[in-house]
Specification:
- The protein has a single domain, classed as Up-down Bundle (Butyryl-CoA Dehydrogenase, subunit A, domain 3), CATH 1.20.140.
- The chain has ten helices and no strands.
- α1 packs across α4 and α6 packs antiparallel against α7.
- The longest helix has 20 residues.
- It starts with a helix and ends with a helix.
Length: 173
């Protein structure tokens, strides 16, 4: 028996929501809207997609497509890099601290939407460069350029996490 959209959405809703939170810099209302728009906007297309890992990749791609379409219209609330420290001056290893989700979302919110989408697909969801570049509408070299934001993201998250934990001064001295 073929899986319904409701069953499919139920299996993937947590992953989609976490992706939407990342893409929207931790803002819950836009993340919820993004998931809702993605699922309702793909209702007709769902019947054409087969079950299995292909359908999971398909819905993740749709989430990114809806996010990017909304960000072009100015509906994502991103700051497009304003205030993001891009110096990446070393610092502690990311494995040395527990990452604060708010720090991750806050740093993501300051990145351009296309970079956020690239990082979510390739780093968090482990898409191949070819798959991700097709959904993002860029070539592999363009995707590699977007993925350079990974280091910026990690540095910003670690700094913010350390600042909140009160250990930043201890590590610098």
């Amino acid at each position: 028996m073929r899986e319904t959209l409701e069953e499919f959405a139920g299996r993937h809703i947590d992953g989609l929501y976490h992706g939407a939170l990342f893409l929207n810099g931790g803002e819950e209302a836009p993340a919820e809207d993004l998931v809702l728009w993605t699922l309702t906007g793909t209702f007709q297309e769902f019947r054409k997609i087969g079950e299995g890992s292909k359908s999971e990749r398909w819905i993740e791609g749709k989430l990114v497509e809806v996010f990017l379409a909304r960000s072009v219209s100015g509906d994502d609330g991103s700051i497009d890099g304003e205030g993001l420290d891009t110096s990446a001056n070393g610092g502690p290893s990311p494995g040395a601290v527990e990452i604060d989700p708010e720090a991750l979302f806050g740093a993501a919110a300051k990145m351009p939407p296309l970079a956020r989408a690239a990082i979510w697909l390739v780093v968090f969801r482990r898409w191949s460069y070819d798959q991700a570049s097709r959904v993002l509408g860029t070539d592999v070299d363009g995707l590699k350029g977007l993925l350079r934001y990974r280091q910026v993201l990690v540095t910003a998250v670690v700094r913010r996490t350390l600042d909140r934990s009160g250990t930043d001064d201890d590590r610098r001295h």
